[in-house]
Amino acid sequence: MAPTTAAKKQKAMNKKTLDHFEKRLLEERRRALKELGHHGETFGTTLQGAAGELTAYHFHMADQGTDAMEREKAFLFASQEGRFLWHLDEALRRLYRSPEAFGKCHNCGADIAYDRLDALPHARFCINCKQREEDAKRQS
Description:
Layout: H1 5-8, H2 15-43, H3 47-51, H4 61-97, H5 114-119, H6 127-139
């Protein structure tokens, strides 16, 4: 006997589970904002500023290169944290706008495993759909 439409439809998460994921998302968001703040401090710091100098002439070119490289790395990390923050905010929007759909794969509609959501609370895809997406990226 084939399962009915109601049986196929998966049950939405309960309030306690949704509260847990909201807490996880907010914790990750606070951590990401804190990291972005640290990166912001890095952008404002240079060798010249740290030494109280107004010009770069007292520093060796290698020191200036190192300073530029460190600022570039900080920018890269900050942009990654910014993207991560955007994903967290999107997950919070999904949670608040349609809690009954939170934790459902955007591709196939299946439940995203609890362990996956706990580790990656902003996940939009179940592990199978995410794996297919990654495989397609590697092949192209």
